[in-house]
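The pair is quoted verbatim as follows:
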Amino acid sequence: MSGYRKTLGKRSAQLIARLYDMGKVIFTIQDVAAITGLDYFSAGRLISELKKRHIISTLKKGKHIIIPQELGSAETYLGNWFVVAREIVNSKEYYIGYYSAMRYWGMTTQPTVKVFVLTPKRQSPPKTLSDRVSFVYVKKKHMWGIREVWVTGTEKVNMSDIEKTIIDTLMHPEYSGGITEIAKGIWLVKDRIDLDKVLNYVKRLNKNVVAKRLGYILEMLELADAGTIKTLRRYIKNRYDLFDPTLERRSIGKNRWRLIDNVGRDRIHKIISM
């Protein structure tokens, strides 16, 4: 905090120090008023001054974040994106999933470009954050398989567990990098997957296409025993589904899962070997 003391007035420096002590890197005008004893108008004026001096940045109306001193005048600093997503979602019921959860669990080595937040409350992120945070509506009955996880030394967020992440991504490959990325992700965490839990999740979701995509991948990568494959094959009906809905509709390989394989086994095996 010594750097802040050199550039800030006594009241501002004490405010920043106190916010850090309280673990409130993200804070509101009410926090400022409570810490400084200022009235609402004066607290707002102090926040404006701190923004002008690039000491803090605004996440959305009413929520601000301290810019780490080492970033200098980084006006658009928004901190940990998982924490930012938690702070701007207008619902206590939410979880981070799809490609973002894959990144957290080590199912991809690609950087997180956008944070996907699933919530039963329809909403949109602030326009200034729309390219980095995406809210996806999900029915309340599908709000399960969620864990509270540490994403910084002091902050936790709700995240789909590994097994729910697999189920969600197979339901919506378009939010997850496509089937090849999902297959690679499953391969990367193969030793950490609880297959019994996965089967329970498949049963709970009760979506045939998810069971078929999962079964085909597990069989292809030789990651499941005969019993697991047999259980998943019960979901095969007369309908044919696309293996990867993010790709054009064409058949590359044959399979017994009533999936139109528009990816091909060779491509998936090549991906996981990279």
Remarks:
- The longest helix spans residues 40-52.
- Residues 211 and 232 are 6 Å apart (CA to CA).
